Amino acid sequence: MTSSDLLGITTFTYLFSTLLYVGLFVFKAKRLGKFATGFTLLAFIIHTIGIGLRWHESYQMGIGHAPLTNMYESVVFFAWAIIAFYLIIEWRFKLRIIGVFAVPFAFLAMAYASFSSDVTQGISPLVPALQSNWLIAHVITCFIGYSAFTIAAGLGLMYLIKNTQEGKGSSDTLIGSLPPLRQIEDITHKTMMFGFIWLTAGIITGAVWANTAWGTYWSWDPKETWSLITWFIYAITLHARYTRGWGGKRVAWLAIIGFVSVIFTYYGVNFILSGLHSYGSI
Amino acid sequence: MVEKKSPKGLFPAIWDFFASVQLAIVTLCTISVVSIFGTIIPQNEAPEWYIKKFGPQVARFFDLFHLEDLYGSLWFKALLALLSANLIICSIDRLPRIWKQITADNLATPPKRLMAMKRNASWTVSGDPMAVTEKISGLLAKMGWKIQSRQTEDGTLLCSQKGAWTRLGVFMVHGSILVILVGAIIGSVLGFKGNVSIVEGESTNKVRINDTGNFLDLGFTVRCDGFSIDYYSNGMPKEYRSNLTVLENKRQILHKIIKVNTPLTYKGVTFYQSSYQAYNDFILSITNQETGKEKIFMAPYQKPLEWQKEGLRFGVINEDSAGEKVKRIKIWLSDASGTPSVLWLDTNGKATVKRGGKQYLILGQQLYATGLQVAKDPGVWWVYIGCALLLLGLFVSFFTSHRRVWLLLSVKGKKTSIYMAGSANKNKVGFDKIFSALSEKLKAAMDNQHTVS
Fold first, then answer.
1. By the CB < 8 Å criterion, does B375 face chain A?
2. Residues 6 or more apart from A84 whose CB is under 8 A from it?
3. Residue B225, SS3?
4. From the list B25, B42, B260, which residue is nearest A236 (CB)?
5. What is the residue-wise DSSP string for B348-362?
6. Would you say residue B433 has pLDDT above 50?
7. CB contact under 8 A, B24 and A213
8. Is the pTM above the cut of 0.80?
9. At residue B169, does pLDDT exceed 90?
10. What local confidence, expressed as pLDDT, does residue B93 receive?
11. CB-CB neighbors (< 8 A) of B191 in chain A
């Protein structure tokens, strides 16, 4: 069994998890709940072992490094962080319904990593600039933030869907079974605060690393600039509640816009714009 | 309750404008949108490049708005200054009010307000207020709530608070951003960013400043004793390494091998491994193995050289290279007698040549120049301290809160009636749980007391 096998299996288990959560939501099959959680947890464990094994394999190849160094590895880790964060949210707020809006992101990420021709799966050695302990700190902090923002966007979507039904009062409908708007808003806000701290830490670790490698902590290259734009979008969102007229709906939209910016910072910049930060596209 | 306070000045309206959250939102939006242009338009290319790429009219438009050096332009800096002004003025505007809340005398809170609080509980216990106060103080202190008390018209008022200082979190966040910006200004005024290329074996005391192209005297000398590249088996570069020596008044001060991610710092100036240049010249070291005499020669490609004392003539006559990297060189070597020797030598390898009764050891290396980024940034510690403060401030602002509980004890016949209220400035849902747990614990403990007495 190689790490690719395990991560390939993970892709399909997340697909099945997604179906379970959707089934739970659509058919209100509450009994599926524990099964959905249990299955996702199992998939997560396989995923974790897969990442661990890949780490081990790189050492066997004599080019040992944490599996966080190219597009494939980072997408796999992104999916891992999304599920980890989701499972914590589910446990903390006892809301399985969020799974419908969270687990699919992890599945999509894994499917992209496994099947896209843009992504090479091989383990390659580290070029000199990446040989730094800051690499691990930078990637982990960024992706914890990204995963929180992913779930915030899922919650934003949930809010907007629920909002279409607001005032109609029926809780029998599919949409009616979603949590109350206030609760969705509260969890979205908390998730974004959490993500914001980690994004901040991610930008800072990146800056410190750039300073030890190149002697500049900030050079306005496209990756840095986009991370700052993303940071600003969430800063705006977090200030919005102190401004009159910026209710839940706008914040829900901002959570989605913020996520689009995250994805552009992470993915778009590597493929569309050029800069110092080209390692991710390898 | 919300009182609008503006300092008495000529421009209270302007003050309010600069102190507003709306300005912060608009400024952040503007900086974000403007920044996008700088990520799409390649920055800091030569003027001709823009004309060639975008045409003269677009290039003129870029020039007019400094879009080719957007982040260095005056108007972008003005936006950052506006954001700073907003941060400073909103902090000055809000700090006095927050400070009042932190230092407020909680025992002076009017009972009316306590009665209006959403989180409350009330119950009755036996015993007089004095005894009950003592009991409650003890219980709460055990749970980490320090009690203050005062006799009021309505009875004995007890209050305890936690995390009053956490109200300052937002000022830490806003202040930290200013600290970072100050650090950036210090760096750009008192520091420099430059680069230098040093050929192996040579030294320099000047670096080229990136922005201006001028040379700056370092006040000391840096020598490159050697440069080398290691490759992985698949041909990818594994390590760039420069062997540097710092000299001052011709004395060796410091010696360090630098790599990418491990720079050298001397007198606040840091040297970073950033590039290299490979030459078509070679460093040949020849040793007469009988006498042990050794001499090092700089051998340009296909140029004859001579070691007169040994009577040797030699040169590099051919090379086998992959890209800029020379893998091996063909050496021609002759003395007065016999046919010349010709041999292939791996770069960084060695070979021996027999000439008559003598034997020579030859070592060959390709000549490189190391390319170094050179930076001095006395503001960087400000930036780092600002960053640490930012993270700490965000944590305090997001995940801690100012929590207060009050207990009003009043005599009711032979018993004491207790009214308990609480408030928190953030995470109210979380505080609900804390409050009800606290009141339940107190009730349970007081019931025990009741049965004992």
1. yes
2. A44, A147
3. strand
4. B25
5. TEEEEEEETTEEEEE
6. yes
7. no
8. yes
9. yes
10. 93
11. none
- Contact between residue B214 and residue B208 where contact means Cβ atoms under 8 Å apart: yes
Measured CA to CA, the distance from residue B28 to residue B31 in angstroms comes to 5
Which tens digits make up the pLDDT trace of A13-57? Answer: 999 999 999 998 888 877 888 999 999 999 999 999 999 999 999
Token look-up 């070291």 returns B285
pLDDT in tens, A68-92: 998 999 999 999 999 999 999 999 9
B38 touches chain A (CB under 8 A): yes
From chain B, the residues in CB contact with A222 under 8 A are: 39
Q: Check: CB of residue B87 under 8 Å from CB of residue B173.
A: no
Whether the complex's predicted ipTM surpasses the cut of 0.90: yes
- Alpha-carbon distance B422 to B436, whole Å? 10
Q: Are B225 and B204 in contact, with CB atoms under 8 Å apart?
A: no
Domain ranges of chain A: 1-126, 131-282
Q: Give the one of A128, A229, A274 whose C-beta lies nearest to B240's C-beta.
A: A128
Among A125, A197, A239, the residue with its CB nearest the CB of B238 is A125
Q: How far apart are the first and last CA of chain B?
A: 45
Q: Which chain A residues are within 8 Å of B35, Cβ to Cβ?
A: 225, 228-229
The sign of the CA dihedral A45, A51, A55, A57 is positive
- Measured CA to CA in angstroms, residue A28 lies from A22, A35, A101, B441 at distances of 9, 14, 16, 39
In three-state secondary structure terms, B263 is: coil
Cβ of B450 under 8 Å from any chain A Cβ?
no
pLDDT band at A282 (very low <50, low <70, confident <90, very high): very low
Residue type, B366: Q
How confident is the model over B278-292, as pLDDT tens digits? 998 999 999 988 888
Tokens 């974790």 found at: A48
Q: How far B451 CA lies from chain A's nearest CA (Å)?
A: 38
Q: How far is CA B64 from CA A226, B44, B56, B69, B449, in A?
A: 24, 14, 12, 11, 82
Segment among A15-24, A189-198, B83-92, B353-362 with least mean pLDDT? B353-362
- Say yes or no for a CB contact (<8 Å) between B270 and A235: no
Nearest-CB residue to B261 (from A132, A186, A197): A132
Confidence of residue A100 (pLDDT cuts 50, 70, 90): very high
Radius of gyration of chain B (CA): 38
* Number of other CB atoms surrounding residue A85 within 10 Å: 25
